[in-house]
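Deliverable D4.2, example record:
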Amino acid sequence: MIEFDMIIVGGGLVGTSLACALENQALKIALIDKSPLHSKPLHNFDARALALSLSSIECLQMLGVWPKICESASVIKTVHVSKQGHFGVTKICALEYQLPALGYVVNADTLNNALNHVVETLSNITLFRPAEIAKVEKIDQGWVVQLSDQKNLKTKLLVAADGSESPLRKQQGIEVQVQDYQQTAIVANVGLNQAHQAVAYERFLEKGSIAMLPFGENSVKCVYIVPSDQVEILKAQSDEKFLENIQSQFGHRLGFFTQIGNRVFYPLKKLCTETLYADRFVLIGNAANIVHPIAAQGFNLGLRDAATLAEMLVQAENANQDIGSVEVLRSYADRRRDDHQAIRYFTDSLAEPRVFQWLGILASEWVTPFKRRIAERGLGRHQSLPKLCRGVGL
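Output generated by the structure prediction step:
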């Protein structure tokens, strides 16, 4: 039996970020994931992308990850918002807020590998990957996790970072509220005949939306959200026909679209759990929340989960508290509640295909406090930010 203070199940972006955030702490931690530690990043035209807020950049700086990936990141200096068929445009510019950027778009696999390179150097983290979990059993004051190779790991706190379908969450019987948006996101990289000038676009359509995020010098990440009943028609379209379709929907603010990569289809749903914790058990990332992708808030929200939990565990350990106690986990859940609710409301409001989107665009352009509030939410800057997201060490 190998004993740990904490076991993190799920070595994706959020789970690994939590492990990195606890670097050099007095906590002995295990990180379990079924995938190998390193994969070959996709630098080709089909690479996955993530949009990072400034507070997420601050956090990744503190984890020692951002310097490893910043040179390959695409900067966003302006956000341009419009609604099809209506006048009025909102532009949010970094210069308005005396900032060098509003955010960055990064290759998701590059970020994942950078996190993995950091976590494998940490002396207080033991990695079990690739590893399959055979059994998880609750015991007095903790858990025993049995791996498929018969290793038994014991811990007083189990962290589920195992994704939206979270087997651990289901095993705990934690109920979830799920809303099917009846929409599908079609994600693909699109080549341009001109430079994007570091502008990210969000265009609301009569039914759905289309976003274009800088991703490389003359290409963008396209996120085209459509009613799900249109998906089979769009799947059947040739690349040339599909490019014509998104060009007509988006317009020519980016010039002409020249090529398109592999199209990936994601049915959209919202998921939120009835609670973030149980007895010596806590949920983070997609295991706790899935939000509409319209404002690219998902990973940023999960990273704040990891940063907040790390901060509270360090505080508890320094105060000689039991890190798996209900008091510590309840405090974590209370602290995350407002952020989770605010992001769900923010993304749901933007996703509503109604005229108030247009009114919101006009209001955000002409009413300065309202525009600043939208910008601050997109930047990930608000009063309840954890220390790491403010550039403060634990």
